[in-house]
């Protein structure tokens, strides 16, 4: 698909030199520029499909013949036998300059992980790294911090999806393509590192929430006060621990207690109750 074909389907689409920071627009890399498209009335599945279509249309990077590439992208029947269990780590360069050295960046990125089976660019912005199963080397916070350092060193902005470990079987390509769709939807939400645990809840329920008049009405009532969202997120991150939540918000525990009580009075939902807390948290997801 080229831009003129896309323009006939989405008349509001336009090209820009940088991705949009406006939450009402979604940005797709396209031939050293960015396609900007209005999010309104676009389903998550539609945006994910469009992401994959545009990525496929971009010229692929030259890379050596790979059984992994053939297995994951070309429906090759031969299952790679180099590993019994692996995970696929997707990466995308959301911003880079014209002097960017792809090979040097890829070597630096590979050095973050042990037991790398293969890594290559799929196009000018996106690529994957396949890692054999091992004891965890880095946690989510460590990977995020290292990527921020790498971004500073190369003057780029990147994001990656750290996939789950899966058995290397004929079902792996289908599972991987679903991970691609999750990353396509979640990568522009400000997180450097995306995982199934951090993005799965939002990805799988967002369309259902958006389509529900009841949930939208409850969301409007619940989040009319800007402070409420911060309180809900802090309580969720602390797993309902009021003291930890108050510390993360830099407020006194009694102040947080008061806000929780006030929210319960207006909504009949208590953030001390885990079922209510989960429901409230779902409503904060964009």
UniProtKB/TrEMBL annotation:
Domain of life: Bacteria
Domain PucR C-terminal helix-turn-helix, residue spans: 230-282
Gene3D superfamilies, alphabetized: PucR C-terminal helix-turn-helix domain
Name this protein carries in UniProt: PucR C-terminal helix-turn-helix domain-containing protein
Species this protein is from: Pisciglobus halotolerans
């Amino acid at each position: 698909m080229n831009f003129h074909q896309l323009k006939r389907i989405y008349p509001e689409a336009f090209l820009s030199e940088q991705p949009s920071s406006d939450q009402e627009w979604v940005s797709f890399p396209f031939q050293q520029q960015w396609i900007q498209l209005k999010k309104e009335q676009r389903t998550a599945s539609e945006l994910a499909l469009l992401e994959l279509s545009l990525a496929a249309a971009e010229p692929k990077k030259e890379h050596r013949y790979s059984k992994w590439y053939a297995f994951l992208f070309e429906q090759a029947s031969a299952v790679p036998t180099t590993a019994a269990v692996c995970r696929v780590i997707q990466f995308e360069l959301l911003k880079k300059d014209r002097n960017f050295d792809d090979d040097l960046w890829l070597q630096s990125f590979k050095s973050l992980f042990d037991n790398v089976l293969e890594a290559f660019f799929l196009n000018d912005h996106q690529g994957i790294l396949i890692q054999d199963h091992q004891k965890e080397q880095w946690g989510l916070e460590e990977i995020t911090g290292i990527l921020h350092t790498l971004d500073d060193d190369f003057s780029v902005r990147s994001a990656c999806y750290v996939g789950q470990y899966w058995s290397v079987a004929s079902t792996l390509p289908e599972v991987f393509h679903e991970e691609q769709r999750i990353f396509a939807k979640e990568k522009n939400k400000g997180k450097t590192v995306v995982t199934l645990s951090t993005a799965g809840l939002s990805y799988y329920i967002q369309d259902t929430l958006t389509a529900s008049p009841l949930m939208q009405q409850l969301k409007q009532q619940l989040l009319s006060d800007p402070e409420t969202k911060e309180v809900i997120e802090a309580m969720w991150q602390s797993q309902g621990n009021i003291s930890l939540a108050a510390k993360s918000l830099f407020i006194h525990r009694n102040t947080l207690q008061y806000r929780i009580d006030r929210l319960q009075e207006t909504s009949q939902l208590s953030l001390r109750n885990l079922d209510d807390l989960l429901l409230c948290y779902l409503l904060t997801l964009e």
